[in-house]
Amino acid sequence: MSLVTLANYKAYLKIADASQDTNLTVIQTAVEKRVKNFLNRDLESATYTDEYYTGKGSNKLVLRQYPITSVASIKRYDGISSGSEIWTTLVAYTNYDRLVLDAEACYIYLDNGQFECGVDNNYKITYTAGYSSIPDDIQMACKELLKVVWDNSPINQNRLGFLNASSNAGSGSENLSIDPDIENKILKKIEHYKAINV
Predict the structure, then answer these.
(1) What is the largest CA-CA distance in the chain?
(2) Of the N and C termini of the chain, which has fewer Cβ atoms inside 10 Å?
(3) Alpha-carbon distance 53 to 42, whole Å?
(4) Which parts of 40-135 fold into alpha helices (H)?
(5) Per-residue pLDDT tens for 127-182?
(6) Chain CA centroid to CA 93, Å
């Protein structure tokens, strides 16, 4: 799933026909990857199966993707037997009283339980996280970044990110001044969505 539909990008750029769809799709992929890399997480709703985490002796565990909408399983590493790893699935009312998602839905909390310390990657979590509808400000940042790339391609001349443009009609020369920090200015607007490092 894309963060912004191709139709919405085209509407933002005021492109009515399909002649540039291939070029726009390539730019769209790169721009959305840049946004996800900056935010250090995926954004679309998806299921993550058996992601490894290390317990810290706390009842709270921050997951890589959020907002967390459901948790399918929590497995704890319990050693090796006959050359195979043993993973025990934690069960409500046996290993903990209840599983709670925090208000921001970026971590899970075991009421009357804990994520034990041990070897690295001693837990495997299967969960669903992400937005069913991408927030408007993230969509706008994607559109603005795509416009910067589009405007600076040889295909188009309406330029976002330029500080000024001047032309000397008599000599046929043109001077353009690009804001070198335009990408950072756009991404700064959505910085509050950055993931907590885990």
Answers:
(1) 85
(2) N
(3) 17
(4) none
(5) 999 999 999 999 999 999 999 988 887 665 555 554 444 445 455 444 444 577 99
(6) 34
